[in-house]
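Supplementary notes for students who missed Thursday's class. We covered one full example, reproduced here. Read the sequence, then the structure, then the short commentary at the end.
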Amino acid sequence: MLNEREIESCYLGQFIPVHYHHNMLMDQNRMHSFKSAIHYAVRPGARVLELGGGTGVLSFFAAQQASRVYCVEYNPDMVREARRFLAINPNGHRVEVIHADAFDYLPPEPVDVVICEMIHVGMLREKQVEVMESFKRRYLARFGGPLPVFLPEAAIMAAQPLEQEYDFEGFHAPIVQFQETGVVYPGTVELAQPAVYSIMDFSQPVDMQIAWEGSMLIEKAGTLNAMRFITKNVLAVVQEQSATIDWLNHYMTLPLANPVRVQAGDLLRVAFHYRAGGSIPSLQASIRAELVNQHQQMAAFA
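Structure (token representation):
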């Protein structure tokens, strides 16, 4: 029988199927960005901890320079996969794959870098924020400061109003959609610029509750019937070049319950709230989008 945490883990995505991890290996943008960031962040001889190791690929990247890598994975299927893959890859012997719950695990020694790639759009579903906050508290209690470097170092999240087509060969179905970045979708019309609603710095305490209310200036006429959520993960800050190594999640588009007809120049008031690690429907149910009338606009800008 599964206990309460295991049931929640299955529902929220920590026991995602093996084939999903295989698909992540084939995501070239993801792989290249993480490889570059890990190569920068992990110095020769460093000790590294990965929380939620999956196939073990990120621990493998770290092992090319680290002296020791602790790779923690909760899903027994993935533990077997990671051990199998690391055994046939260079320096895989430097990685210890540990079958444990990332909520509870601490390494036997201080580490220099912590990798936690439980990243879903908007920090939903997966438990990255909660795992990292728990880790910080327990790590400081056992080893004292300073904290290790975290990878990703930060996350920047934004929302954008859309007119989204929901016609599938004549079948109308407003569904949650995930779209690749950098691709033009004819059925997607951007009605305003994205608005940043949260910046998470993982070196600092992070609030599990995410709430935002703000205004967006509509730039194109249309029917507002969806909200796009954007998450850019700042994997590493390259201080020498005043640059960052980033990875952009697929866009997530959520249909709105009450579409709104908008015109260029309209001011849109948007509000939503959710808990980091919560479900997509919890965010979707909280979204409120309404036009601000002329009197309210004048008051807002006063």
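Commentary. Residues 26 and 145 are 37 Å apart (CA to CA). The two ends are 60 Å apart (CA to CA). If anything here is unclear, bring it to office hours.
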